[in-house]
Inverse folding.
């Protein structure tokens, strides 16, 4: 779960950098060109939506553990091998279904959070009249850090 958030952050940063560098290199910008930087990983870490999603995922994972424990007990209680195998298959299919549903919901919610964060970065960029916003880790020097402003807007 944490790897997915990091991958999403890195992907978003790479997209912003690539798109921004390409546009910057191909244009004649005015002297009042304003650059902002934002630490997306910090924004994600401070997002109430992400924190709630993590809690929700942990609760669902706990439910799956309880389901597996119950299934093991139920299977262990059956002595007939044929019925035991049928019960194992039933629980296995049900577990796979629950996991797939949980993963789909997680991906959908994570995508919505990503869209919301991107929207807030865009809004803050427009509000501050920035021509470009780059990922903070990609900038060695310069740019106005708007991370805290984005964090406040995302909350």
């Amino acid at each position: 779960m944490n790897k997915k958030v990091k991958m999403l952050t890195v992907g978003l940063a790479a997209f912003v950098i690539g798109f921004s560098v390409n546009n910057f290199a191909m244009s004649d910008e005015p002297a009042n060109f304003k650059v902002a930087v934002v630490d997306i990983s910090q924004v994600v870490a401070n997002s109430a939506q992400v924190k709630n999603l993590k809690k929700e995922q942990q609760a669902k994972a706990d439910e799956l553990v309880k389901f597996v424990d119950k299934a093991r007990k139920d299977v262990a209680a059956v002595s007939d091998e044929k019925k035991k195998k049928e019960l194992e298959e039933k629980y296995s299919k049900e577990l796979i279904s629950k996991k797939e549903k949980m993963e789909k919901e997680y991906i959908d919610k994570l995508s919505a959070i990503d869209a919301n964060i991107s929207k807030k970065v865009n809004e803050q960029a427009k509000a501050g009249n920035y021509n470009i916003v780059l990922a903070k880790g990609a900038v060695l020097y310069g740019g106005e850090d708007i991370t805290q402003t984005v964090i406040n807007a995302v909350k």
